[in-house]
Amino acid sequence: MSNNNQVRRPKLVPFLISGGVIGLVLGVAFSIFGPASGVASAGQENVIFMFIGAIVGGFVGALAFLVAEWTTLR
To answer: Is residue 56 within 8 Å of residue 23, measured between CB atoms?
Structure first.
């Protein structure tokens, strides 16, 4: 008889990729709909906000992974 009550552990990479992509999209949306900068061009703003959004989204994805892993181990 096998034990069917095993819980699958979450995987880190999908959380990081999802967080990075969501952060990237939010960064682009903020650069398009946010206030214009007098110092940088529109393309430079897009690249900067895409990079920042992807990094922050990756960190949020990692945090979500830690929470998901912590709750599945209980």
So the answer is: yes
